[in-house]
Structures are given as structure tokens and as C-alpha cells.
Amino acid sequence: MAEPRSSTVELRSLQLAEGTESADSGIGDVDDLPLPQQIHISSITCDSFKISWSMDSRGRDRISHYFIDLNKKENLSCNKFKHKDVPTKLVAKAVPLPMTVRGHWFLSPRTEYTVAVQTAAKQPDGEYAVSQWSEIIEFCTADYSTVHLNQLLQKAEAIAGRMLPFTVFYRNQQRESFLPDRDAQCRHLLPAVKDDSGSHGSPISGKLEGIFFSCNTEFNTGKPPQDSPYGPYRFQIQADVLFNHNTNIYFGDFYCMYTSYHYVIVVLAPVGSPGDSFCKGRLPVLDRSSNCFLTCTKEDDGSLSFRHAQDVILEVIYTEPVDLSLGTVAQISGHQLMSLSTANAKKDPSCKICNISVGR
């Protein structure tokens, strides 16, 4: 049996109806209207969901509105209503179920919510008779879709700036991170799950396994900077080892941390690797030789040349283990600028440059 066609309710239009001037007026006593039961949440995105429920047929023809109480889960311990049985959230006209609730300013990605529903009947005097509240259901909104990531991508492209040449990827850590262990595997840098830094809805946070590398260069020298927020020892590897025509490149995120610096995350995944499989369908794929952030171009003599964007700080995630013997480890001469660390950094939700309309 086909699912009934759902109705879409824009949260911006979910205003308290006529006769409900405040949260404490316009609501009648609990009536014998049918109680919503077996609440079902489906088709969850980062900024919308479908909701449906079952209810008795008795009194159903009297229903004119639905009252929807939607709260972030962390607020569950707060006073649920300003007044007994008075909703403080959303009022929607009764429409066929399932109903799509959508509102970019209201719902955030990757956020746990609770929802409860009342049915209501608008009275001739403008007040409402209401049912009891349904059970409380919990659900979590989804990650950004590729549509949303493409919106972020367009914003990042707008400020990327001109491209500068580079020759190496590098990674700074404490000295012990590069010391060999008894286990031969420890002669490799191993992928780890990405932390929660950056955009809250990015599908790579807490899911994609990879190794962070940098490639930004100093404008005046064309070489990697000598300062680092991550440690005084640097592993350095020729760019063509990690990025070549057998590597796919994906856009992962664009964010800032309450500063003028903006960060772009790109993912390098060898073709056919587990990381490549993870990224396909989740992240926008970039052209290796022609994009605004990180390029690999074949020259006339067959060699590869590399360029990075000047006006953003690139964070490159390589999805496979890297053999330390393929590069070099040396101590850098600069300072550890811990204030520049992006570990679990929170994105500035007020920045107009790097935010999109579906949440932070």
C-alpha cells in the first residue's frame, strides 16, 4: 500500500492562530478529541522530518489544528510548558499525514530532539479545545546532504583566492608520535576517526577515518611555515605520494572559529579505497586538476605540479595509512601556537561567510 502523500509545513508559517495572543491564552480545557498515538518520525534530514500518528476515529472530524511541542533533548529537564497543557512551540493546521515539518532557522543538523503532539479544535470564540499530549518521542536530525555541502562549497570557492605552488604535505606532532615501536605497523601513520571540529552537520565528523596533513606555504618563502599548533616535529612527504591521478579529491567542510581565518577541509582518497567508498555519495567530488583549493596537474614533461589556495587554511585528510619511510621527520624551528589548533573547534554560527541556512 502506497504511503499517503505528505503535506509540508514551513515552520515560518507556524504562527499561533487568531485568538492565541500569548502562550497562556486561547487554549481551552482538555477535550475528548482523539489522542495521537504511535507517533512515527521518518524521512529525517538535517532540517526537516515527517511525522505521523494514529488516532481514534471518534471526534476526528472536529480537528482543525495540531499542536507540536518540539524541544532539543538537552532541554528535556526544563519546565516543559509555561502553563499546564499550554504549548509553547508550534501550531499547524490539520493536514493529511504524514506531515513534513521543515524550517531552516528552527532545526539544526545532528541534534537530538523530543516531540509530542496534541490535536485541537478551534472554537467559535477563537479559543481551542485540545486533546491530551501524546507520548514523547526522541529522534536525531541528519548530517548535511550533498546539496547543503555544495552550498558550503560555493561559499568557500568565493574566498579561496589565487593558487600558490607547493611540493610537500606535512604533519606536525610531538616527537613520540613518529618514534618506531616494537610493532612494525607503528612505522606507519594510521588513520583515526575525525573529531567534531568544523560545521556541526558535516558528514565526516566522527565518522571518516583519515590522517590530517597540511600543505599551506608562507607567501614570502613558498615553504611550509615553521610555527605549528600541534607539535615541534614535522613529518614531510612529497605531494605526489599522496595526491596523483589515482587519488580522488572531495570537499569536506568550510568553517571558521571566531577569527578572520577560514578553513577548508578536503579529503584525498585513493581510488577504490574504503575512504573513497565512504566519500562517494556523501561529499562533493572535485576535479583533481581544476578546483579552487588543491590541484594536481600533469605537465608537458610528465611530472606533476601542485597548487593550494592562498586565502584559506587547507586541512587535508588522507584516508589510508602512510609509511613513515616514504618521508622525513625533523624538528621545526618555530613556535607551538596552540591558539591555532582546530582540535574539536566549534564553528562560529554568526559568520556570514561560512554558514548556510540549514544550521551551524
Automatic annotation (TrEMBL):
- Its GO CC terms? cytoplasm
Task: Provide the Fibronectin type-III domain boundaries.
Answer: 35-144
- Give the record's family classification: Belongs to the PHYHIP family.
Natural source organism = Stegastes partitus (bicolor damselfish)
* Alphabetical list of PROSITE patterns matching this protein: FN3
- Report the function annotation for this chain: May play a role in the development of the central system.
- Record's protein name: Phytanoyl-CoA hydroxylase-interacting protein-like
